[in-house]
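Tokens in:
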């Protein structure tokens, strides 16, 4: 029984991208990436959530953690958090 090959993510033509969705609370697009595949620093966690508008990055330990944080950019993106 051999080891499974790690999954390669490449959503919307972006290396390492799992998904890009519009956050309902702000209307901004938020991407979820595999840090190593996207060429980003995995030190804070292997998964990265990025506010595509403000380029704010949040590392997460798990893909599920990234999926939990993506819909709420006001909790981790300084610019989305600011009142307009």
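Residues out:
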């Amino acid at each position: 029984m051999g080891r499974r090959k790690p999954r390669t993510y490449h959503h919307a033509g972006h290396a390492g991208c799992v998904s890009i969705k519009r956050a309902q609370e702000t209307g901004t697009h938020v991407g979820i990436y595999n840090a190593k595949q996207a060429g980003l620093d995995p030190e804070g966690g292997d998964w990265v959530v990025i506010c595509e508008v403000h380029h704010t990055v949040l590392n997460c330990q798990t893909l599920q953690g990234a999926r939990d944080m993506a819909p709420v950019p006001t909790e981790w993106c300084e610019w989305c958090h600011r009142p307009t």
